[in-house]
Fold these 2 entries.
Entry 1:
Amino acid sequence: MDDQYHFPLETFMSREKFDRIKQFSKDLETPCLILDLDVIKSNYESLRTNLPFAKVFYAVKANPEDEVVALLRDLGSNFDVATRYELDQLLRLGVSPDRMSFGNTIKKEKDIAYFYEKGVRLFVTDSPMDLDKISRAAPGSRVFIRLLTEGLGADWPLSRKFGCHPDLARQLIKMAVRFGLEPYGISFHPGSQQRDVGQWSTALTTVGQLFRWAKEEAGVTLKMINMGGGFPANYVEPTDSIQQYAEDIKRFLDNTFKSEWPEEVIIEPGRSMAGDAGVIVSEIVNIAKKSVHDRYPWVFLDIGKFGGLIETLDEAIKYPLYFEGQGKPVSIIIAGPTCDSMDILYEKWTYTMPEKTKIGERVYILTTGAYTKSYSSIYFNGFPPLASHILK
Ligand SMILES: *Cc1c(COP(=O)(O)O)cnc(C)c1O
């Protein structure tokens, strides 16, 4: 039956696991997100095994559920924190401040002061004014400088807005010394769901030049390199395995630093840690054509862009959809339930559903553990934020 669809379920999860999720969600109100903590645990362990030299700073924004944070806390992870609200959550869950970095380049001075007061001593920066704020509000702290990347090859680029050009990075290293801060390292984010591992190579080459420049020209020994997130989750378009990414990245580090690797290498995975751990259970609200001659029916789900699937903007992230109905595959347009015409999920990329699919049936949206619930809107059209449940 499965090979009638444009992908087999087994590409993304075992039939056994699917049946467990289906059974677990049988009586739950849709839409809802089911999170499997075992998957997060094994993703964390796989990163640790494949990149044993790297310290993991989980990017909390990807999935900030208490249970996820608590699990990673117990596994020994560190955390990339973006706001004082995330900081408060982590402190409430007993994560010590020496396991956190303030990784947002856009921050108020009073929030920097708050992080400092709570004991955080590791801050990102990418501009003189921000560095100035850090020097006042977090005196003596470690700072790492984020480089601009292009995000080429990434499904969700994170480019332009963050980071600075290497010339400015040099100035910031010198400024940090003048300000009494410790210029600790360099960071970059290659772009989220980065399918071209070569992007790490490009960025690392620049980082290597900065390390050498700092030592020779500024008398500063940088100690840390932070390679950001970017590791993939399993969506419709396939990627290399984590093993392959790890092997390549290790080679790039060897090429750049030879036998003199930096003391500390950090990664900040979000998507690759939580994405595969989630399945959104959704229901078909309507199936309709706009005219009798239309080729493709519109399939309206009870979740859309505002309910947590904002990463379908420009069809950037293509979630695997699993329909259970019978019949040969027919092409469809997929849209959400809100009264906003931008709430269309997929129109250009052709998804299919089994011909006999009916209104009221469930659709399983796979690989939705990252950047879904945390993105869902509060009561637009009265729809509540996306509910989530931990798979038991
Ligand atoms: C969002 C974010 C991450 C996580 O990136 P993924 O591609 O989801 O792994 C890491 N670092 C920073 C600074 C981020 O903003």
Note: The chain has two domains: 9-34+275-390, 103-269.
Entry 2:
Amino acid sequence: MKMINTSEQILDVEKIRQDFPILQREINGKPLVYFDNAATSQTPKAVIDCIVDYYENKNANIHRGVHSLSQIATDAYENARETVRKHFNAKSANEIILTAGTTHSINLVANGYSHFLKSGDEILVSAMEHHSNIVPWQMLCNKTGATLKVIPMLNNGELDLQVFDDLLSERTKMVFVNHVSNALGTINPIEEIINKSHKVGAKVLVDGAQAAPHLKADVQALDVDFYTVSAHKICGPTGVGMLYGKEELLNELPPYQGGGEMIAEVSFEKTTYAGLPHKFEAGTPNISGGIAFGAALDYMNAIGFDKIADYEMQLLVYATKALEEIEGVRIYGAKPEKKTAVLSFNIEGIHPYDIGTLLDKMGVAVRTGHHCAQPIMSFYKIPGTVRASFSFYNTISEIDVFISALKKAKSMLS
Ligand SMILES: *Cc1c(COP(=O)(O)O)cnc(C)c1O
């Protein structure tokens, strides 16, 4: 077993791993090697405890009751919103809408803009989006008559910014791009995309679901109009996330869903809506999930995003080198320095699904398939890839296990 030189040891990974109960379990009789972090991250004890504590000590509906328990639950929920605000450096908590996750956040914005767009308007979406950042915009175009145009990608897994420049015009109303591609790990130059889009008056939504586990986005510094995140990719629970929107833009958007919580006054003649952020939070939310989202950010910030990024880069560089030494391997996407800790690859002549199945038998969890990004797979003319995605709780020795399991799978399949 190879170890990183202690002078390079950025994190106390063995200690961190003790925080994650699931990392102690076995799969198919082998210690779990969890390399499917881009699909969902594992959950530390602090976050699990936070959910248990909510149901044991705080459970009540929020923003409604005069009773103390309701106030305790409301305070915990609103404190979590403040933690999220601080993490992404939004100006105001009014700009943080707690949603069911990235998909919900994007649909909320798409629905809102269906009231403003018209035939002749254009919206640009990148070729390397997750389906959840493609389909809502297609639906929006169908509803409004606006045209969807695609910012193409290059063979190296980066966006073609020259074509992007050509596509931008005064007809461009909105631009959608992910901060980091979930299928390839590419870190997109969103500052440049945002600046150029603003010059023609277009609004920009950045899907940050895959960036959030690896880097800390500052929405004010980016001057981004909308930014979305899912808690379950950053050590939080599933079914909760964030929509950040500039306050003036959120004020303009009509509500997405009607119901309780989002109203000021209701009569059968007329309903007036609550102010931000509640206007977009109809119904009883995922209260424990929202509170645990805050706890997850606290957990990751205590470790530190700079350390996380440096450590994950070591894992990525090590794994890339080991993978490249295997004959017949093709890695898709950018070089390590231009991406997060994702390796999307194929082995010549072998279907990714077969590799994934054999790796699983050896305890190694990777994702195979199109990763909800079929346009990328069509671009490379492949059915899918094997995707190994690393997190700060993974280790060099797990990569060694993965590489030897991969070699074994290859020899069984070829
Ligand atoms: C995971 C992911 C999504 C979807 O997130 P949900 O939590 O399923 O809504 C969208 N975009 C990217 C880039 C993702 O990685």
Note: The domain at 13-43+304-413 is CATH 3.90.1150.10 (Aspartate Aminotransferase, domain 1).
